[in-house]
Amino acid sequence: MKIGVVGTGFVGSTAAYTLAMQAVGSELVLVDHQPALAQAHGMDILHAVPFSHPVQIRSGDIADLHGAQLVVVAAGVNQQPGETRLALLQRNAAIFSALIPQIVQAAPDAVLIIATNPLDIMTHIATRIAVAAGLPASRVIGTGTMLDTARFRALLGEKLGIASESVHAYVLGEHGDSEVLVWSSVHIGGIPLADFAAARGIALDDTLRAAVDHGVRRAAYQIIQGKGATYFGIASAITALSRAVLFDERCVYTVSAMHSEVEGIPSVSLSLPGIIGRNGLTGTLKPVLNAAEHAALQTSASVILQHIQAMDAAA
Amino acid sequence: MKIGVVGTGFVGSTAAYTLAMQAVGSELVLVDHQPALAQAHGMDILHAVPFSHPVQIRSGDIADLHGAQLVVVAAGVNQQPGETRLALLQRNAAIFSALIPQIVQAAPDAVLIIATNPLDIMTHIATRIAVAAGLPASRVIGTGTMLDTARFRALLGEKLGIASESVHAYVLGEHGDSEVLVWSSVHIGGIPLADFAAARGIALDDTLRAAVDHGVRRAAYQIIQGKGATYFGIASAITALSRAVLFDERCVYTVSAMHSEVEGIPSVSLSLPGIIGRNGLTGTLKPVLNAAEHAALQTSASVILQHIQAMDAAA
Amino acid sequence: MKIGVVGTGFVGSTAAYTLAMQAVGSELVLVDHQPALAQAHGMDILHAVPFSHPVQIRSGDIADLHGAQLVVVAAGVNQQPGETRLALLQRNAAIFSALIPQIVQAAPDAVLIIATNPLDIMTHIATRIAVAAGLPASRVIGTGTMLDTARFRALLGEKLGIASESVHAYVLGEHGDSEVLVWSSVHIGGIPLADFAAARGIALDDTLRAAVDHGVRRAAYQIIQGKGATYFGIASAITALSRAVLFDERCVYTVSAMHSEVEGIPSVSLSLPGIIGRNGLTGTLKPVLNAAEHAALQTSASVILQHIQAMDAAA
Amino acid sequence: MKIGVVGTGFVGSTAAYTLAMQAVGSELVLVDHQPALAQAHGMDILHAVPFSHPVQIRSGDIADLHGAQLVVVAAGVNQQPGETRLALLQRNAAIFSALIPQIVQAAPDAVLIIATNPLDIMTHIATRIAVAAGLPASRVIGTGTMLDTARFRALLGEKLGIASESVHAYVLGEHGDSEVLVWSSVHIGGIPLADFAAARGIALDDTLRAAVDHGVRRAAYQIIQGKGATYFGIASAITALSRAVLFDERCVYTVSAMHSEVEGIPSVSLSLPGIIGRNGLTGTLKPVLNAAEHAALQTSASVILQHIQAMDAAA
Ligand SMILES: NC(=O)c1ccc[n+]([C@@H]2O[C@H](COP(=O)([O-])OP(=O)(O)OC[C@H]3O[C@@H](n4cnc5c(N)ncnc54)[C@H](O)[C@@H]3O)[C@@H](O)[C@H]2O)c1
Ligand SMILES: NC(=O)c1ccc[n+]([C@@H]2O[C@H](COP(=O)([O-])OP(=O)(O)OC[C@H]3O[C@@H](n4cnc5c(N)ncnc54)[C@H](O)[C@@H]3O)[C@@H](O)[C@H]2O)c1
Ligand SMILES: NC(=O)c1ccc[n+]([C@@H]2O[C@H](COP(=O)([O-])OP(=O)(O)OC[C@H]3O[C@@H](n4cnc5c(N)ncnc54)[C@H](O)[C@@H]3O)[C@@H](O)[C@H]2O)c1
Ligand SMILES: NC(=O)c1ccc[n+]([C@@H]2O[C@H](COP(=O)([O-])OP(=O)(O)OC[C@H]3O[C@@H](n4cnc5c(N)ncnc54)[C@H](O)[C@@H]3O)[C@@H](O)[C@H]2O)c1
């Protein structure tokens, strides 16, 4: 069970640390185009291993991914002052154009987990390139709204006084501003949210909903303002997803993947509940939504499609 | 975090092993009225500790529960040839009449987890006695249908090709023949079961439902026929419940507890979804059921009430 | 990561439960010549899975071990009244003669972990048969004195008031009466035992040593007297060993294996510290012993050799 | 089990994340004099919780540590351009003079774990202040050379092809340049290093020793050069130490604490193997060293003493 992590900034390195600590995989290879950075993280994580289960860790280059069953991609560049969103996207797309074929060549049996933002576009690009390089599309998975779903569950749990483990709630669509919190299907321990709230005397009013919505949707901004980047939540999401792949768990997670059609919008990558196993995404579930949620998901799909089209037009 | 286990037969000993291996609690005290049995289990578990996290384990008597924050009660006797169910119940009730006051005296701050069968009646008895001894009723929790819920989720998961972790399904009522599988609220990764099955091309017909129903309801019988007793599933349920108490998790589990009224039936102990934390059961959720399920839950409550009344009449 | 467990009595079933709970492996296949027993254990363990990580569990026959990377063998028969030790051994040898070739055929890439007693003889037999069937000898490992080592560490830890995790002590030789507690190399957190005891004011006298020696050597007898069999400690040992193989950990454990020579005794299977990884036993460490320990290890080797010779003569 | 983390820079925040993920403790309170930073980390960690066990996380101020059983202190300032080491030390000492009494007042039953550098001096200062505020000295523990010990084990493991888990090696003295790698007592699975190396054909020459020594002693510098700070290793060390306290494990770790005398040097704080339990440091082990190691430890103690004296003189 060899795992590669490509791009060992905050996200990639914290994911590698979490994978090591939770003993998912037996061998970790860290790759970054700043090799000294990957090496430093590798050393720091190595020093954590005696406190956990034995795992082998080293840094290397793409060729060292040979034989990996899973490759996490968190490589990316940051927006420069004055740079447009499209320009940034093009730079990240250029990175993927170079990286993904090399990864597929080195690890042709791997499942790829994409974490780089803008998540859905990068997943779309990665899937196109990987498919061209011979990988089935189902082996490219974006972390998508897994983190947003975790935020939704955690915040609802806090508001309701319930462990997030017992809060079943999902965020779909774009990993970004247009994402859709599926309020209509929230359940707490088997009970629909409205019934739960009524019975517990909790006012499920617009204020509470808006606070949770804001907390989920603006979480990244708030965290980035406070600490410059977000990485603990996403690292745990990557680790859960990696586990699901390597242990063929067939868990359902809200992951991003290329869909031929979503709410009438063709060929777009975004998050729907997906079944994750040894071969990647082995099935997508069609969510049950109310009219407003359908519309919001369609809007979200359109937003992503526009970005893809803008990018393609600029190419 | 001191935990006592009273009654170290198959269930109590396997629960103690699981608690030790998962490092829930830091000190385990095993008590059985066959002290040699408790001691032998204590030794066997002690030899597993070097492969896990450090935990202290010893056997002792009820007085050694002093200071325990949690006491698991799995003490009981088995049906003798020709013995009626009521006679058996009376013998177990006699055991609890002696045990519970001693436990409460030794560990007045503990939460009690009851595993002895017939589970709901024994939880009812334990609650009455514990309350008389000064413990709040909310600190007495029966494992109830936690195991049945796990069976429901595991079997559905197998049939649907999904990790049980992503199957949200609940069994309520009696831990026994009259239990209620709440099919109407089953969700798979946020999707109602019917929609899920339709989309995945799985025929949710009576045959499948009957197979699952039979698998859940008859599991104990089948296992007992094959191996004489059931203990792995219940030991894991006890461990999860113990974790929820000791770590104040506020998870929702289908536990048995004394309710003043269920579906019109007064003063009966049975399983509903409950919120579990440091002080035991800190809230009960009112399930949303269809008409047939309401009726079945009422029947289940009646069955339990009749047993309680028969027992009280015979006392 | 598919694991087979052949022989699902107390030891095999508890090992399977522990493997599932600690999420070592992703697929477990239980095999017993009493299929109803294997099936009942499989069901019971399945019901524990929703409280842990997703693992697939089923019962089957030897052919279902196809593709397993690891097979635990805990199949065996018990001594009949009046039966000699040799006669019992012959019956277990007969079982292995039938079983091992089938296992190797079904899972030619597996590492075999042997737990059946008399452990060292059964490991010897299994190795011979497996080698004849084409498996390298290094892929057959007996749990050996792993359990005895755990007992030594746990008991010393209790006597010294130290976590067994920080007690470094080893038992070598036969998993049985002639085993050798290597007192001369016991270290506590890097400090030789004698220095540790002197500094802490603990009298390391013959009484304490005899108590620990007795506790280690007679543990199985005491536990069997109290509960009929031992299984929690050995199940955790099997799980640790399985982890070391599947995750290529290269941990050192005192395992039984066939050695060309031990203390001048030729071709004998017994426990020495061994390095465990993906390919089984990848190296054996030569222990540093004092004269008495050398002699005791030689005696232990002779005892085992005699049993092997007696068995071969009777064949 | 409430844990406070004071100072949520790289080290404190990664420790909090690790504590949450490994479910040590049930409640985490993050405190930093940049409240927005503590809050952002709290949010990020909260989003990881749904992938792990339920833990409560929030940020707050020192008063919110009320009732904590453990407080991790990783608050500190960084060297300014042109600032002398002594001047830096004085600034950190000033921070502790303000912080520690407030922590002791808020959480009078807590054990304090100190991680701020220069570690041994800061532990010395913290102990003095805490004792003045009424805490027993044994309740103040510096992480000391726990990290260096982990580095020693990890590097030796890599060089020897053995899991670090089976490498028993210790670093004592200063957490810093004068630290002492105790080569004389290194054992691999019970075998002295020299015997192990000889038997495995590994040349234990000066080159290998120097490489390991350099790797351990210069690890922090190398990592800081590559990534700006070290935090994964130390976060895991803090988590292991926290576990040992909260679960009363009585593990042996090389922690820093105030000793009345070390190698003839009076009243100095540095690392020796210590027994860690619910009340903090419950015993210190006297290491067995060769002459060179004794001398090196004495030098290390002198170095620390000089820093303490310089600081006291400047006060
Ligand atoms: N999916 C999510 O939920 C989620 C959450 C947080 C962050 N992110 C995204 O993850 C990405 C990484 O974030 P970060 O905070 O770690 O950023 P970062 O800048 O710290 O790390 C990016 C790393 O990628 C490396 N890199 C750049 N080009 C490379 C190449 N060609 N080959 C190898 N490595 C290369 C850089 O050297 C750098 O170390 C960003 O795009 C970020 O927006 C996603
Ligand atoms: N709740 C569930 O889901 C569930 C599942 C499985 C079993 N159970 C029940 O758990 C109970 C235990 O089952 P088991 O298989 O371990 O049975 P068992 O017979 O192996 O163990 C019962 C133990 O209780 C001890 N005991 C009896 N009276 C005692 C007393 N006064 N004080 C202390 N110990 C006493 C006995 O010595 C024995 O060791 C049974 O009632 C069983 O039906 C419940
Ligand atoms: N190595 C150790 O440290 C250690 C510790 C405890 C027990 N043991 C040994 O482990 C073995 C198992 O112990 P147990 O308590 O589980 O015994 P058990 O009698 O409960 O189980 C043995 C199982 O093997 C099965 N079996 C017999 N022949 C078989 C065959 N041909 N194919 C498949 N299955 C077959 C039986 O049906 C039975 O279920 C015994 O030999 C015991 O002495 C070893
Ligand atoms: N012991 C070890 O093995 C080890 C290893 C690595 C780092 N460290 C040390 O740990 C410390 C923290 O390192 P870091 O990388 O996290 O540094 P950092 O600068 O990222 O974090 C320090 C934090 O302390 C906070 N702080 C400062 N004064 C405070 C006060 N009065 N109250 C509350 N918070 C205050 C700062 O706001 C900052 O967030 C440093 O001293 C570092 O040298 C020790």
Automatic annotation (TrEMBL), chains A, B, C, D:
Superkingdom classification of source: Bacteria
Classification via PROSITE patterns: L_LDH (PS00064)
Gene3D superfamilies (UniProt xref): Lactate dehydrogenase/glycoside hydrolase, family 4, C-terminal, NAD(P)-binding Rossmann-like Domain
UniProt keyword terms in alphabetical order: NAD, Oxidoreductase
Lactate/malate dehydrogenase C-terminal domain sequence ranges: 145-310
The reaction(s) this protein catalyses: (S)-lactate + NAD(+) = pyruvate + NADH + H(+)
Lactate/malate dehydrogenase N-terminal domain mapped to chain residues: 1-142
EC number(s) on file: 1.1.1.27
EC top class named in words: oxidoreductase
Pathway: Fermentation; pyruvate fermentation to lactate; (S)-lactate from pyruvate: step 1/1
InterPro entries cross-referenced by the UniProt entry: L-lactate/malate_DH, L-lactate_DH, L-lactate_DH_AS, Lactate/malate_DH_C, Lactate/malate_DH_N, Lactate_DH/Glyco_Ohase_4_C, NAD(P)-bd_dom_sf
Assigned protein family: Belongs to the LDH/MDH superfamily. LDH family.
Described purpose of this protein according to its UniProt entry: Catalyzes the reversible oxidation of malate to oxaloacetate.
PANTHER family: L-2-HYDROXYCARBOXYLATE DEHYDROGENASE (NAD(P)(+)), L-LACTATE DEHYDROGENASE
Protein name: L-lactate dehydrogenase
The organism of origin for this protein: Undibacterium squillarum
Gene: ldh
